[in-house]
Amino acid sequence: MEQKHKDFFDQVYQVVRLIPKGCVTSYGAIANYLGAKGSSRMVGWAMNAAHDLDDVPAHRVVNRVGLLTGRHHFTPPDQMQHLLEQEGIKVENDRVKNFKAVFWDPTVELEL
DNA sequence: TGTTTGACTGGGA
DNA sequence: CTCCCAGCCAAAC
Fold it and tell me: Does residue A26 belong to any structural domain of this protein?
């Protein structure tokens, strides 16, 4: 039977879509916003499925230290860094420069 | 149906 | 920020 309510994956998509241009967030921040604090891995798994959607800027989602852990899932892998640089985010050695400044926390910005 | 894996995180050193 | 260890939960095999 169909699930009328939004799935965990869908919830992740909604939050990622709300990430402002030129900003990045972490998997844990999204998971925390969804109330699944310990399920940060599921966010990454959801992003894997989100890869099918054009509306989900997965390149704006990195790990807690600003490391582009999911870049290998992009086509090509350099695409993730390239997209971030287009948004004005500096990336060095697969890591977001000035990560703290571009960090966007949904639990704070959206203030659930 | 049980085991393995994974785009992670937090705590301690 | 870095390295190591343990916990976490759902999807995939």
Answer: yes
CA distance A24 to A26: 7
Each residue's pLDDT tens digit, A68-105: 999 999 999 999 999 999 999 999 999 999 999 999 99
Nearest to A23 by CA among A107, A111, A98: A98
Q: At A34, list the tokens.
A: 């969804």
Residue A28 lies in a domain: yes
pTM: 0.89
Distance, CA of A72 to CA of A79 (rounded, Å): 9
Domains contained in chain A, number: 1
Nucleotide C8: closest residue by CA–C1': A38
- Does strand C come within 7 Å of the CB of A26? no
Q: What crossing angle do the helices spanning A8-17 and A40-50 adopt, rounded to 10°?
A: 80
What DSSP state is assigned to residue A93? T
